Amino acid sequence: MDILCFFTGKKPYIVIAVSVGLLYVLQAVLNISLRLSLTCSGGTERIFNNVTFEELKNVTNDRDKLVQKLEQYDMQLTGLRREKDELQTKLNHFDHYLKQNWIHFSGSFYYISTTEKSWQSSRDDCLGRGADLITIDSREENASAHGFINVRVLSKS
Length: 157
Description:
Blueprint: H1 11-41, H2 44-48, H3 53-99, E1 103-105, E2 108-110, H4 119-128, H5 139-156
């Protein structure tokens, strides 16, 4: 069903003016109802009501400080992992010598052979084990060497 209207004179202007006026009233009613629904539900008004530029700037600064701390902690974690790996290597080294009956004494490892050999054969045996014959340079060092040798002999009995 088609309706066709013809207006003559000033009547079309009045219809257009009334239509535009009704649209403005309808828009105002919709804006007010939308504003009321957001305010009642705690929408954007509650979120952005009292936030100032300074507060946003402070939050940004806090975030930047946290990112910087995170980077520092990451560097510390990397250092701790490296230190752990070094300690694990030392532990493996220590364990390797202990399993081969070496004696740990005063920060060094010593191997006491039970077979008699010449000086050169003994030195070659030590070099083959990645070590060298002990060199004693003082009375204190001599006493220490006799101490761990005596401990070794007593523990084998």
